[in-house]
Task: inverse folding
C-alpha cells in the first residue's frame, strides 16, 4: 500500500526540531552568550517550550497528504539553520570603542555625562550625596595596595570613575582589558577597555580608560592584558577624564566570556 505524507508538515516539523536542538545546545553550552545577554535565558527557554508544542501539533498532520508542495517558502528558515550548523560561534568585536567623555560636544556640568550611554544605578544614587566617597564601595576588592576590579563590577566601577573622578584619583586598580587605539592619542597612549553588551551583539560598544605606558609599541590592538595602574585626572578635549599611570601590563589569554554584560538600569 502506497502511503503518502504531508511533505509541507514534515518540513515544518524538521525545521522546528532543528531550531529547538540548536537553541537548547547554545543555551546549555552558553555559546549563545556571544550574541545575547544572559538575562534573556528565561525568555529563550520559554520560546523553546512553545516551539516544542508547535512541533507536537504538526505530527498528526503528517499523515494528511498534500500535493504540489514547494520548499522555497522555507528557505528563509533553512539557510540560517544551515549556517548555524556549519559555521562556529564566536564573539563579535565592536569597532565602536570610546571614552564616555569623548562623545561630548558640549557639557553643562562639571560632572562627566554620557549622552545616550548607560549610567549605573549606583552612580545615580551616589550623585544625590556628594559627601560620599564613591570609591569606598570597591575597597573590599583590595589585595595589598591594588583594588582588583572583576567583570561583575566593572561597568559600575567604570562609570563611577568618570562621574566621581576625584574620589578615585591616586588609587591603584587592576582589571582585565583589551587594547584599543584612538586616532588622537599620543604614541605612548592606548585605551584599556572592554566591550559592553546591553541587549545583544547588535548593541556592543567598547569603553576604556586611557593608559600611558612605554610598552605601547609592544601591544597589538584587541589583545588581552591584565593592566594595573594609578588613576589620575587627564584633560582630554577639554574634559577631565581618568587615566592610568605608573602602569604595569601582563599579557594574558582571552577569557571564556569577553563581554561585560551591562544590567544596571
Result:
Amino acid at each position: 500500500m502506497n502511503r503518502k505524507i504531508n511533505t509541507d508538515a514534515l518540513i515544518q516539523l524538521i525545521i522546528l526540531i532543528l531550531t529547538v536542538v540548536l537553541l537548547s545546545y547554545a543555551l546549555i553550552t552558553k555559546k549563545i552568550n556571544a550574541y545575547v545577554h544572559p538575562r534573556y535565558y528565561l525568555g529563550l527557554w520559554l520560546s523553546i517550550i512553545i516551539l516544542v508544542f508547535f512541533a507536537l501539533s504538526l505530527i498528526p498532520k503528517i499523515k494528511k497528504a498534500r500535493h504540489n508542495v514547494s520548499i522555497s517558502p522555507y528557505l528563509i528558515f533553512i539557510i540560517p539553520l544551515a549556517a548555524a550548523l556549519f559555521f562556529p560561534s564566536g564573539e563579535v568585536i565592536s569597532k565602536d570603542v570610546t571614552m564616555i567623555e569623548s562623545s561630548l560636544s558640549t557639557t553643562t556640568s562639571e560632572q562627566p555625562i554620557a549622552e545616550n550611554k548607560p549610567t549605573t544605578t549606583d552612580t545615580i544614587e551616589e550623585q544625590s550625596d556628594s559627601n560620599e566617597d564613591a570609591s569606598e564601595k570597591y575597597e573590599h576588592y583590595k589585595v595589598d595596595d591594588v583594588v582588583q576590579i572583576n567583570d561583575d563590577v566593572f561597568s559600575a566601577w567604570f562609570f563611577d570613575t568618570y562621574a566621581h573622578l576625584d574620589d578615585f584619583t591616586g588609587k591603584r586598580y587592576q582589571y582585565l582589558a583589551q587594547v584599543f587605539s584612538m586616532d588622537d592619542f599620543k604614541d605612548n597612549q592606548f585605551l584599556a577597555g572592554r566591550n559592553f553588551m546591553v541587549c545583544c551583539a547588535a548593541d556592543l560598544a567598547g569603553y576604556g580608560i586611557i593608559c600611558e605606558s612605554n610598552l605601547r609599541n609592544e601591544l597589538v590592538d584587541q589583545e588581552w592584558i591584565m593592566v594595573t595602574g594609578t588613576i589620575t585626572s587627564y584633560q582630554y578635549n577639554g574634559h577631565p577624564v581618568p587615566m592610568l599611570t605608573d602602569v604595569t601590563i601582563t599579557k594574558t589569554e582571552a577569557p571564556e566570556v569577553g563581554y561585560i554584560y551591562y544590567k544596571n538600569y
User: Anything to note?
Assistant: The chain has two domains: 7-86, 97-261. Confidence is low (pLDDT under 50) at residues 102-129. Strands lie at 97-98, 142-143, 146-149, 172-180, 189-197, 205-212, 224-236, 239-251, 259-261. The two ends are 64 Å apart (CA to CA).
